[in-house]
Each structure stands twice: as C-alpha cells, then as structure tokens.
Amino acid sequence: MIPAPAHPLCVEATLDPRLTRWKWLVKWILAIPHYIVLFFLQVASLLLSIVVFFNILITGRYPRPLFDFNVGVMRWSTRVNYYANAVMGTDQYPPFTLKDAPGYPIRVDIAYPEKLSRGLVLVKWLLVVPQLLVVVLLLTSGWKAYRYVDDYSPFSSGLIGLLTLVAMGILTCTGRYPRGLFDLLMGLVRWTLRVLVYVYLMTDKYPPFRLDMGGSEPVAGVVEPAGSG
What's the pLDDT tens digit per position in 41-56? Predict the structure, then answer.
C-alpha cells in the first residue's frame, strides 16, 4: 500500500448523463470559433514562456500574471477538448473565457508556486523525456505531443483519440457512455496535463508514472494498492 500524494494540478470532471447519440459527429465543427481563438492564445503563451524561463532562472519565481494567463489557456483548451476532441464527456458548449467556469463539467486549476528551483529550470526538458514518450503514445506522434491543446482534428491519433472514438461508437449504438472508458480517459488526460504543467515550468513536482482514473482527483493521504498505476 502506498499513499496517493496531492499534485499541484487539479482536474475535476463529471460525465454528462444525457449525451446526444449523434452530436459528437459535429462538435468539432461547432468548436471552430474556439480553435481560432486558441491558436492566438497558444502563440502568445509560447512567446511568454521565454520570459517565464529567464524570470525563473534569475529570480526563482513564475510571474503571477503570466501564470494566471497560462492556467487560463490550459483551462480553455481542456474544456474545448473535453467537448469536441478528447473524452467528449459533455454536450454543454464551452464558454469563451480564461477564467474558471464553476458550472462547466470539467475544471482545471493549478496551485501557484511561490518559489521554483532556478537550477531545475535548465534541465526539466531533459528529465521529462520519459514522460513525453508516454504522452506521444497517448496523443499522437513526434513534436505534436507538445501541442496537445492545439490538436484540432476531431480525434487525436493516439490512444486517447482511439478510446474516445470507441466510446462514441458505443454511445451511438446504446445511448450510454461506458463509465469504465470515461474513468480511463480521464486518467490519461490527467496524466497528459501533469506532464504539460511540468514542461511549461508551472511546477517543480515531477509528474508521477501513475494512472489516476476517474473524474475526481485522488485525495492526499488516501492509500491505493501498490499495483494500481
């Protein structure tokens, strides 16, 4: 038995119990306005990451306004993916906002780090290589692993996209979204976002090689079987 430690990233999601059987076929079209806005937000986030890198290297701090902006971009992107690409666990159209949306079926938050390691910022890209190999399998191939929130195809070409397609096929045939697939997909999405948070220098906590399945985050101190992920 081992403890399940809390992670600075929190991803909470609920499965819409009244998903339409066929709406998933057109969600990616309905989400096109979001894709356009997110393209520019991602470009801005990439440019600002250069400022963030040097600020952490010199001061050991992530500028709070830039942190809040990048958290907002991740929230927005995750909501759009949850609706139209990965998981597709809701028919509720995502809001156009960087802020937290308490009423939306998926929510993302990241604890602000008061202090970050100045030395670690130089080697995070190297330390995270094993995790990126996992992300490549979950999402797509090659350099696109860095662009999870920019993959605007109806489904990603990795495991998450394949399992989402299977879930949508079952939904179409039975009118039900299989709960087991939802829990697994949320575990994969949570793993991917933890890696991205580390890559984007938003935490010094190395992403665990652990699949925390389900819509809710594991609670710190709750014990899990050693072979559970």
Answer: 999 999 999 999 999 9
